[in-house]
């Protein structure tokens, strides 16, 4: 590891957070044994130095350890870094609205991996992807709840579902029973056969039940928002991934009694025609397919996976095994199809599908389940104790009031001191809930009473704050990461204010610095040159004819460049201008007294045209302004560090320093 580890790491951090965030000051209580140093009376723990250096080591080539010299260099860089952070805080840069808002925004992203919710979501993502490795074919019968169903109504539906389940288990055909009993409208056509599907294509309770069954098994009644389902798994097999097919469609007009026979005869004739070796698939599609969206492009359809198409079409597509293989005619509700396999590919990796899976999970009932699990874990972890009697009473007293009416009703009924719950020894009352409601700008959709909805939201908010505080207090990795970003944005703000922008905008300072350091901005001996590198040796004579015997001039150079770029763009590469020739790979070999010459170098012939020679001398300010600004900024940085070392006393704990060195070499 080199002695610029911290410096390089912090510089990369600055670019990452240049548009990011500010912070509430991170209050730290550092024990005397853990204090590495203090700057202006503010203690800094040794673990912070170890963390930053170790983070740099993670990306550096492996080595046998850190030398004492490297450690001292890194410690010096660390002190300079913390001096700037200390000064930024002294200037109040951590109190600006911009800083605070950006830090809070970044803080949300940084804490995400440490949250209970994240680990639960990760589990659901992995479970969904694991299930996606296979596909299931199942039939079902749906027993819907009547509108505004009572508990007795639900029991009647359940008894019916249990009765039909028993018939299936006794040998009755689920598909025939689906036609007779299912409330799913599609059962009249598909007899309850859902075809093949995989994870995230059915509602969660249905999916959970289907994946728990083996082929031939029948479920107990499964309740979803649609009603009770009886499910029979017919088949399980590995997920075939995705397929791409082209097709020919002959439609059927349901209002024409002769349409079915006509379509069947037409598709049979087309299928016979396809078998001929001279047949061109695209021509057949164009002439006969009745699918206007694909008939002009060879019948090509987008990639699709299991569960994306109607079952008959899908099963025919996935039954094709060889590229170019054509299926027999397939009947669907749209008519008759002939399919040709164009390509196949396996299921994508977890990394490729992760965001898609996450999006689907967050849109279905799993998101509610995850939130319920999060709250249950939080309540257990942070000693949540609800005052059930009080909450029940408040629900009865306030259930008829809207959001705007709730605060007034609480005050009128004298309920503001009624207890809701205790969390980590702190009791929250109805008064706290009222303040929470008043601070919330958005309304919420209510499935229960207004009180229940706001009580649940308030409880979740308090529990989330308890988890945030717990992570910051007890998770060292998160604490270090948060502190790193807090200090990094402060460093960026200070450097931008005191060094970078000042160096760019201070034109008088730039000029004075240039004049004081003119010896650093010098031209070596130069010559006005035009160099033509011949890439195509067949074009050598053309270049010779245009340049030999000519005097170098901008007009000559412009005409040559324009002509070759238009007529033979790959024949030459050119370079021109006042060039320092002593170290130039071509001009260093040139005879400066000759205006025209040809030089072999690096496997290519170069035509060289030379003009006026300029002796060594100082660069004009405008010729080197970019480098002057860079050097001026470096001087401003050094001056700032020197000033801060004078302003803020630095005390180093020798014992903690040695412990840090030993820790970094273990």
Account of the 3D structure:
There is one protein chain. With 666 residues, the chain is of the alpha+beta class. Among the domains are: 133-238, Roll (Chitinase A, domain 3); 242-346, Chitinase A, domain 3 (Roll), CATH 3.10.50.40; 366-472, no CATH class; 522-618, Roll (Chitinase A, domain 3). The protein is 50% helix and 18% strand. The chain has 24 helices and 20 strands. Strands 4-3-6-5 form a four-stranded antiparallel β-sheet, sandwiched between helices. A hairpin with a 2-residue loop joins strand 9 (330-332) and strand 10 (335-345). Helix 1 packs across helix 2 (46-58), helix 5 packs across helix 13 and helix 20 crosses helix 23 (625-647). The longest helix has 30 residues, at 476-505. The protein is flat. The two termini are 14 Å apart.
Number of helices: 24
The share of residues in helices is 40-55%
Q: Report on the biggest sheet.
A: 4 strands, antiparallel
Low-pLDDT windows of residues: 1-30
Q: Kindly state the number of beta strands.
A: 20
Read across the widest sheet, the strand sequence of neighbours is 4-3-6-5
Oligomeric category: single chain
Distance between the termini: 14 Å
Which term fits the overall shape?
Answer: flat
Radius of gyration, whole Å: 38 Å
**Overall average residue pLDDT:** 90
Q: Look at the helices and sheets and give the structural class.
A: alpha+beta
Strand content: 15-25%
């Amino acid at each position: 590891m080199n002695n610029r580890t911290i410096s390089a790491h912090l510089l990369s951090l600055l670019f990452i957070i240049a548009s990011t965030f500010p912070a509430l000051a991170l209050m730290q209580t550092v024990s005397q044994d853990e204090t590495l140093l203090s700057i202006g009376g503010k203690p800094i723990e040794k673990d912070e130095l170890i963390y930053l250096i170790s983070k740099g080591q993670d990306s550096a080539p492996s080595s046998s350890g850190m030398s004492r010299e490297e450690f001292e260099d890194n410690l010096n860089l660390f002190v300079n870094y913390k001096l700037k952070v200390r000064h930024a805080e002294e200037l109040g840069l951590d109190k600006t609205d911009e800083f605070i808002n950006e830090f809070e925004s970044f803080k949300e992203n940084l804490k995400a991996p440490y949250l209970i919710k994240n680990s639960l979501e990760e589990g659901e993502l992995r479970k969904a992807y694991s299930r996606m490795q296979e596909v299931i074919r199942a039939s079902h019968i749906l027993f819907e709840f009547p509108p505004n169903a009572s508990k007795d109504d639900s029991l009647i539906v359940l008894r019916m579902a249990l009765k039909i389940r028993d018939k299936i288990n006794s040998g009755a055909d689920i598909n025939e029973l689906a036609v007779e009993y299912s409330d799913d409208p599609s059962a009249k056509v598909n007899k309850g056969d859902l075809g093949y599907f995989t994870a995230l294509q059915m509602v969660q309770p249905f999916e959970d039940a289907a994946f728990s069954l083996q082929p031939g098994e029948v479920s107990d009644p499964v309740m979803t928002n649609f009603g009770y389902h009886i499910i029979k798994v017919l088949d399980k097999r590995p997920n075939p991934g995705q397929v791409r097919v082209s097709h020919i469609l002959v439609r059927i007009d349901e209002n024409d009694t002769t349409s079915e026979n006509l379509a069947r005869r037409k598709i049979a004739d087309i299928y016979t025609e396809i078998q001929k070796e001279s047949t061109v698939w695209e021509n057949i599609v164009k002439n006969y397919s009745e699918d206007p969206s694909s008939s002009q492009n060879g019948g090509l359809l987008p990639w699709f996976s299991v569960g994306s198409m109607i079952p008959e079409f899908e099963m025919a597509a996935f039954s094709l095994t060889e590229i170019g293989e054509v299926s027999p005619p397939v009947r669907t509700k749209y008519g008759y199809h002939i399919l040709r396999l164009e390509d196949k590919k396996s299921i994508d990796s977890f990394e490729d599908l992760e965001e898609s899976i996450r999006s689907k999970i967050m849109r279905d009932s799993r998101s509610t389940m995850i939130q319920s699990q999060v709250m249950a874990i939080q309540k257990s972890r942070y000693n949540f104790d609800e005052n059930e009697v009080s909450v029940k009473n408040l629900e009865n007293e306030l259930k008829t009031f809207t959001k705007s009416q709730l605060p007034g009703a609480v005050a009128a009924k004298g309920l503001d001191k009624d207890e809701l719950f205790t969390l980590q020894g702190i009791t929250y009352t109805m008064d706290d809930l009222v303040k929470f409601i008043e601070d919330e700008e958005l309304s919420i959709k209510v499935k229960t009473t207004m009180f229940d909805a706001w009580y649940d939201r308030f409880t979740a908010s308090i529990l989330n704050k308890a988890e945030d505080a717990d992570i910051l207090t007890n998770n060292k990795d998160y604490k270090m990461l948060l502190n790193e970003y807090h200090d990094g944005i402060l460093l960026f703000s200070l450097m931008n204010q005191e060094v970078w922008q000042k160096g760019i905008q201070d034109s008088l300072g730039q000029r004075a610095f240039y004049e004081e350091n003119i010896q650093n901005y010098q031209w070596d001996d130069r010559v006005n040159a035009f160099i033509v590198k011949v890439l195509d040796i067949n074009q050598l004579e053309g270049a010779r004819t245009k340049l030999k015997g000519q005097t170098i001039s901008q007009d000559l150079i412009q005409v040559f460049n324009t002509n070759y770029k238009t007529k033979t763009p790959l024949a030459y590469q050119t370079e021109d201008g006042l060039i320092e020739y002593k170290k130039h790979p071509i001009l260093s070999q040139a005879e400066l007294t000759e205006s025209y010459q040809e030089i072999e170098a690096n496997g290519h012939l170069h035509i060289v045209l030379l003009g006026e020679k300029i002796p060594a001398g100082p660069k004009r300010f405008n010729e080197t302004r970019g480098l002057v600004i860079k050097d001026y900024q470096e001087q401003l940085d050094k001056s700032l560090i020197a000033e801060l070392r004078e302003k803020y006393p630095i005390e180093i704990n020798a014992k903690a320093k040695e412990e840090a060195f030993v820790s970094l070499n273990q």
